[in-house]
Amino acid sequence: MSLHLHNGICIFFTGLSGAGKSTIAVALDHALQTRGKKTTLLDGDVVRTHLSSELGFSREHRDLNIHRIGFVAAEVVKHGGIAISAAIAPYDSARRQARALVESNAVDEGRFLLVYLSTPLAACEARDVKGLYAKARRGEVAAFTGISDPYEIPTDADLVIDTSQVTVDEAVNAILAKINAVT
Ligand code: ADX
Q1: pLDDT tens per residue across all 183 residues of the chain
Q2: Is the pTM of this model over 0.90?
Q3: Ligand 1-lining residues (CB < 6 angstroms)
C-alpha cells in the first residue's frame, strides 16, 4: 500500500501486556521505513530501560511514563517525524494528555492515532510470552494489568484491532489505510 503521508504523526498503541503492541509496532515501523519514512519507536520495555528506569507500576509512575512518551512523541511529530508508541498506557486520562500534547505541537489535525489492541485477556494470558501472567496469578507480580491492576478501555480509539483475529500484515495494512484516511 502506498502512503501519501506528509508531516509528522504519532501512532499510539494501547492494550494489555501480550496484546501484540510490540509485534505490530515493529512491523509497522518496518513498513513505514520501507516507504522512506523516518520513524521513532517508543516501545514500553525499551522506554522503561532507558527513559523510565526508576519507575514502577503504580498509577502515578505509569502516568509519568506515558507523559514522558507523549512528550518525546510530540517533539518527534513537531519536527515532521513519525512516532510509534507501544506501551500498555492503561489510563484514559494519561492517553488523552499524550494526545493533547502531540496535537498541540502538530502542524495540522489528525496527527495522533490511538490504536487500541483489543486482544482479549484470555488470549494474552494464553500467549504469556514473558511468563508474567502466570507469576501474576501466583501473586509473584503485584499490580499486574488486567489481573490485579486496571485497564481502562478507550472510548476515543481511532482504530481497534484484535490481534487474535487478524494477521500481523492485516493489522499493519489497517493502520496504513487509517493513516492515509486521516492525512
Ligand atoms: S505502562 O503501564 O507504564 O504503560 P509499560 O508498557 O511501560 O506499562 O510496561 C509494561 C511491561 O512491563 C509489560 O509488558 C511487562 O513486561 C512489564 N511489567 C512488569 N510488571 C508489570 C505490571 N505490574 N503490570 C504490567 N506490566 C508489567
Answers
A1: 788 777 899 999 999 999 999 999 999 999 999 999 999 999 999 999 999 999 999 999 999 999 999 999 999 999 999 999 999 999 999 999 999 999 998 777 779 999 999 999 999 999 999 999 999 999 999 999 999 999 999 999 999 999 999 999 999 999 999 999 988
A2: yes
A3: 17, 44-45, 48, 57, 62, 65-66, 87-90, 130, 132, 141, 143-145, 149
CA 141 to chain centre: 22
Which residues are 43's β-sheet partners? 86
As a whole number of Å, the end-to-end CA separation of the chain is 15
40, containing H or E segment: strand 39-43
Task: Round to whole Å and give the CA distance between 32 and 94.
Answer: 26
CB 10 within 8 A of CB 79: no
Scan for cell 492515509, then name that residue: 180
